[in-house]
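thread: overnight batch results

M.L. [08:02]
morning all. the overnight job finished for the chain we discussed friday. pasting input first so we're all looking at the same thing
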Amino acid sequence: MDYQKQVDEMVTKARKALAELESYSQEEIDRLCKVCCQAFAEHAEELAEEAVAETGLGNVPDKIAKNTGSPDGVWYAIKNKPSVGVIGEDPKRHIKFVAHPKGIISCVIPTTNPNITILFNGVYALKGRNVILCAPHPRAKKSTLHTCQIFNEALKKAGAPDNIFQCVEEPAVELTQAMMAASDTVLGTGGPSMVKAAYSSGKPAYGVGPGNSQTIVDEDYDDLEKMVADTLFANRFDNGIICACNRSFITPESIADKVVDIMKDQGVYYIDNDEERDKLRDCLFPEGYGKLNGKPVGQSAEQVAEMAGIKVPEGTKNIVVRIYKNGKDEPLCREKMMPVAAHIVSRDFDDSLRLAKENLLAEGAGHSSVIWTNDEAKIEKAAEMLPVSRFLVNVPGVFCANPALAVGLVPTATLGCGSWAGCSVAENLGYEDLINISRIAYKYPDGEIPDHDAVWNGTAEF
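M.L. [08:03]
and the structure it wrote out:
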C-alpha cells in the first residue's frame, strides 16, 4: 500500500477544511464544539460497549461512566473561553493577544481510551479552528473510526466543513509515521513507542508518560475508611487501565494493620505470603524487571488472579500485595494496569516520601500521586519532594484527569508529564495548547519606558 499517497490525500482534505474554518467566528466555533460534545454523549453507551468488545480492555459500566461524563468536562473547560481572533490583552505592557490555529493536528489514539481521547483532543483542537487526523491502535480501529464518524455526521448536520475529523481505517506504523510528519502538530496519547514516534516526527509534539501513582497516607488522617474506599475505586476503575489509577498504598507502620483490616472489610484480597506474591510477580512481570505482561492488563481482579494461579473469593474487585522491597528492587512497585496495588509500610511520613520518590524514579516520574492528610505543611513538603506534575489531596488518583469536575485541573485525556518523562508540557492538555498566539506590541507612552536607574534602583517591573 502506498502510505504516502494515502497521507497526501488526507492532508489535501484537511487543508481545505482548515481554509473554510479560518473565517469562522468564536460563536460559530463554539457551536460546533458543543455539537460534538452532545453527539458523543448521545452515543456514550454504544461506544463503551464497542470499545470493550473490540479491545478486551476495561469494563462496560466504567467506560459508560467515562463516556457520559467526559462531554461535560470538555464543554465545562471551553465554554465562554476565547480562542478566535483577539483573545485578551495586558494593559500594563500594552500588548494584545491574537489566536491562530496550529493547523493539522495528528492524534495517536490509544487502545485503552479509543473514544474519549478523540473527544478531548478533537474538540480542544476544533476550539482553536484546527482539523484532526486520527491514527488508531490496531486493536481499537473500529471504535476509533466510529467515534470520528459520529463527530463528522453531527458536524455535517450543523453545516460545518467536511473532513474536520479524519481517521485511518487500516492502521500501520509506517502510515502513522507519515501522517505525523505531514501534520503541523502531533498529540502522542499512547504507549511509549507511539510517544517516542510523536517526538521523532520532526513536528511540535505533546506526549504523555507512564503512570505509577503513589498513595501516601498520613498517620493522623481522620477518615481511613474513605481513604481506602476511594483508593480502591481508583485502582480498579475501568479495570485499572487509566494511567492515573492509584498503584500503591504507602502507610506508616503505626496505622498499617488498621488499614489492612479496612481493606479486607471492603473486599480486598490481601496477599502477604511468599508463594502468592511470587505467583503474582511472575504473572505480571515474567521477565523480572522487564516488560509488563499484556495479558492481564485491563482485566478484572478475578481474571488476574486466575492467570496467576491464585484462588480468590468470588466477587473480589481488588488485589493488594504487601511488598518488602522498593523501586527497582521490586517489579510489583511498577505501574500495574489492572486492579492490583502494592502495600508498602514505612517508618513515618518522611520515610513514606522517600519510598514514593524511589518508586516514581523507577517508573512514573512526572505523572501523578495522591496524599491523604489535612496537614498543609505535609502537603507542600510532599509536593516539593515528589517529581510529579499533578499532586492530589484527599481524592482518588483518577481525578488527575478531572472526570468528576471535582478539582481545578483541566479535564483531559492527555496528561503531560514534563521533562521527567521527556514530555514538552507538565500539565493537562487543553485547548490553549492547540493555538498559536500572536502578540500585538504597542510602544509604551512617554514616561513609561524604564531607564537604567528605574530598572536597577526604582520600582519599574516588567
